[in-house]
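Table S4 entry, Tol-Pal system protein TolQ.
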Amino acid sequence: MTLTENLSIISLVSQASVLVQLVMTLLATLSLVSWYWIFRKSFQIRSARNKTNGFERDFWSGGDLNGLFQSAAAARHQTGGMERIFESGYREFTKLRAKSHDHAATIDGARRAMRATYQREMDDLEAHLAFLASVGSVSPYIGLLGTVWGIMNAFRGLSNVSSATLAQVAPGIAEALVATAIGLFAAIPAVVAYNRFAHDIDRVGIRFESFMEEFSNILQRQLR
């Protein structure tokens, strides 16, 4: 078998030591799972942004708040985060206004209801971001473990020969470097996706918070 055949990716993986193979398998699994969540979070954030845009158009078009509330309540599982924030705030506002004449307490209750829903929406959007951050930070070190172990095996094998040649050293070193390459392949997309998603979620969160303040002002004017 020639040196080139020995250095093919398939042969390097198949001939690697057990520990290095375990490292490669772990990194490949992390990469697959991270790509799954990258696609899932991408669709989720895009959907949240589109639904927010749609609800803002409906809300600021001057429609009746009761009509918007009934529509949101009827299709709760299909609505976006901002619509659910509006629904919870308006429901609490209506309930407290019927029970109490304390305007400050009514507005404060509506704000608390919106804040609780806002927190649930943000928790849902941020779910699994920590996993992507962990993959991005840990994968290179896991790959480095496989690299160090592979290099140690390569040099340990040289202790049994009188003179080292490239054909004897290259497979062990290449095997070790494959682990590093797989670690980087797992880490780089996870880091890029995490940074992008964190930025997009922050932007959606700012829009939610701005809406809560503006809607609270609208409710306050209705009590005058």
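The CA atoms of residues 31 and 185 lie 7 Å apart.
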